[in-house]
Amino acid sequence: MNITDDIKYLKGIGPKKAALLQKLGIRTCYDLLTWFPRAYEDQSTLTSLAELQPGTTATTSGTVMNVQERQGGRNGRLSILTAMLGDGTGYLQVTWFNQKFLKKKLVPGARIFLTGKVEYAYGGRGQYAMSQLSSFQILKAGDSPEAQTGILPVYSATEQLNQNFFRKEMQILLGNLPELPEVVPQAIAQRYQLLPRREAFRELHNPPTLTALKTARRTLAFEELYLIQCGLLLLKKQAREGQHGIRHLENSTLVKQVMAQLPFALTDDQQQVWQDIVHDMQSPEPMRRLVQGDVGSGKTVIALLALVKTVENGYQGALMAPTEILAAQHYEKFHTSLTPLGIRVGFLSGRLTKKQREAIYTQLANHELDIVIGTHALIQEGVQFAKLGLVITDEQHRFGIAQRAALEKKGALTPDVLVMTATPIPRTMTLTVYGDLDVSQIRHLPPGRQPIRTFLRLPDRRPLIYKYVHEQLAKGRQAYVVCPLIEGSEDSDLPSAEEVYDELRYGIFYDMRVGLVHGRMKAADKEAVMQDFYKGDIKLLVSTTVIEVGVNVPNASLMVIEHADRFGLAQLHQLRGRIGRGPWQSFCILVSEGKSENARERLGIMVNTNDGFKLAEEDLRLRGPGQFFGAMQHGLPDLKIADVLSDMDILLQAREAALATLAKKSDLSFIVPILQQQYHEHFEHITDA
Ligand code: ADP
Ligand code: MG
Q1: Alpha carbons within 13 A on the beta-carbon side of 520
Q2: Between the CA of residue 525 and those of 482, 528, 530, 534, what are the distances in Å?
Q3: Whose C-alpha lies nearest to ligand 1, atom 18?
Q4: Mean pLDDT in the chain?
């Protein structure tokens, strides 16, 4: 047998089963082999009937003493078989529903091996009962129950392809398993004490002991993480090598001027990040750097400096932001501070007319603009740069890797690349998700900020909350009110932005200017409202999540989030990051009935911490990696066996091993074909040249 053979050639699988398997994505024997157990049942200890404990799951065995059959259920159509088992130490009553065919086999004297949940028996002779069996087996003459014990794999099964089918076919496959080519170079396998692959697969599907299972799992998780790390590191290496990057010169007048004009001194962290960037930009290889820093940590000024540096060297720079509002805000800021220095800054977004857009295209192609700031519109077909030297994406987690790459291809040269994100992923995950980038972190917020204080309140407190907000606005502050929906609907009692807007402006805030901004408004209207809020004319801004990322109004020190349970943790943290940007004590009030346990737990975490890293970790824990990463566009292969949270130590080792592989020519030529084969769609551009 060949491991790449079509699954239909495996004994016990005909065309029908093969078609069903195909629906699960299992086409070859290898696909079946990597259909990893989702759990295990520990049947390694056999409990005697006298030792059973109600409420636990146990593996036991006994001899059938008598069997009863009756009809039950609402219309008497349910067949119920009840057998009394004994083993000399005690009795157990076992029930099967709708398995009439078992009656022939469950004759007195038959011996049974079974695993299930132990319950108290109602009536009957035994003290305990089992009606939820996870597995059972009628023993043949001569079989001993001890011989059946073990650790059983539990597969994701379907109605037509049940647990027993997978267990049986896996045994057939393992029994015929050919030699499998190793995918980890031998020296590395030795160094990290990995099992041979064939053995690892065998023990994973058929573990003799829990210790053996652990070793097998570790081997295969290592292999998976190692391959992905090799792929990412190769991508990173190839993006630099052979590419003629731009060698920027040392900082000169323009950069120094802008630096001198800043209204504040850079923090130590910002200083360090800026040094990293200067170093990268001045080196002949293209920069590929991620700047990670919590909301409000001051990433924008770093982007500004980097853009000025590329312009100073005679190149153009581009900054892409995920929302119109954020792009416009950056544009206003940069335009105002750079125009006096003779730097030409342009804006490009979907809201421009065709004519306006084309004017920008021409200016970019003719190098009549030095910097362009915009939304996704920057990666449209018509955009071409005369001399693109630096590409920045702000809030990268909102973009896919593909979009970032599209912008990088907009010039004839290989531009430097800077990516900024407010850490929606735990620190420990950076290596996997952004494995192809160098990372700089801003760990501390600028000085003089007071930590935001967050409260959780029931909706009946709204009058008091808004009274307090009104007082604060009267003292000169500004505030946000965030709502989950734009407009009200009949089948929802959630407060919509429009309803809350009307309630507040005609109610307690009748004497102040209240604004409304949401995603369905025309770009120009949105822009006008935001401008008035920036200027301080609008005191209270009612909005949807359109203000979630990037918006910066330091005078705003209050935020009320209506129906806070409707938002994810990462999103709440981003929203809350709009306040706490000035010298005043800021308050965030989460309004929620918080009916579900999960909602209360999430909001409780918001109240207790302002630390984005911690929140991301909690979010990942609460939602599980599937959903957490599903919401992010990272463009990485799905992990089949490794677990991003609990396998951190394996990940670090795999990364270390992958680094060693890259440095060794023979290992590299070994690994590249494997990568191309196993992760074709992710790493197809990789070569070992
Ligand atoms: P983010 O990292 O969320 O993008 P911003 O760049 O918007 O954060 O910065 C948040 C606020 O902090 C802005 O008002 C900015 O002017 C201010 N800021 C940035 N760096 C400093 C600093 N070193 N000292 C004081 N204030 C700073
Ligand atoms: Mg920002």
Answers
A1: 5
A2: 18, 5, 9, 14
A3: 298
A4: 88
Three-state secondary structure call for residue 122:
coil
- The neighbourhood of ligand 2, an ion, using CB within 5 A, equals 550
CATH assignment, 453-609: 3.40.50.300
The reported pLDDT for the residue numbered 291 is 92
Q: Kindly give the distance from the C-alpha atom of residue 301 to the centroid of ligand 2, in angstroms, as a whole number.
A: 9
Percentage of the chain lying above the pLDDT 90 cut:
54
* Ligand 1 binding site (Cβ under 6 Å of any ligand atom): 264, 266-267, 270, 293, 295-301, 422, 446, 552, 554, 581
Closest ligand, as measured to the CA of 265: 1
Q: Is the pLDDT of residue 493 over 50?
A: yes
Q: Which CATH superfamily is domain 45-148 in?
A: Nucleic acid-binding proteins (2.40.50.140)
Ligand closest to 443 (CA) is 1
* Residue 309 CA to ligand 1 centre (angstroms): 19
| H/E segment holding residue 187 | helix 186-191
- C-alpha of residue 286 to centroid of ligand 1, in Å: 27
Determine if the pTM surpasses 0.85.
no
Measure 297 CA to ligand 1 centroid, in angstroms. Answer: 6
> What tokens does 233 get?
């590191």
- Mutational pocket test of ligand 1: of 272, 274, 292, 297, the residue with most ligand atoms within 8 Å of the beta carbon: 297
| DSSP per position, 128-166 | EEE--EEEEEEPPTT--HHHH-EEEEE----SSS-HHHH
CA-closest candidate to residue 395, choices 321, 337, 333: 321
**Amino acid sitting at position 336:** T
Superfamily classification of domain 253-442: P-loop containing nucleotide triphosphate hydrolases (3.40.50.300)
Q: Which residue of 264, 304, 574 sits with most ligand 1 atoms within 8 Å of its CB, as the best mutation to test the pocket?
A: 264
The pLDDT tens digits of the residues spanning 347-404 come to: 999 889 999 999 999 999 999 999 999 998 888 888 999 999 999 999 877 676 666 6
Best residue among 326, 329, 552 to mutate for probing ligand 1's pocket (most ligand atoms within 8 Å of CB) is 552
Secondary structure of residue 561 in the 3-state scheme: strand
What is the helix (H) or strand (E) element at residue 234, kind and residue range?
helix 210-240
For residue 369, give both structure tokens: 């603009």
- The answer, yes or no, to whether residue 239 has pLDDT greater than 70, is no
Say which residues have a Cβ less than 8 Å from residue 137's Cβ, sequence separation at least 6.
112, 113, 114, 148
Q: Which atom of ligand 1 is nearest to the CA of 582?
A: 14
Which range of 73-82, 362-371, 388-397, 523-532 scores highest in mean pLDDT? It is 362-371
In this structure, the residue with its CA closest to atom 9 of ligand 1 is 298
Asked if 401 contacts 417 with a C-beta cutoff of 8 angstroms, the reply is no
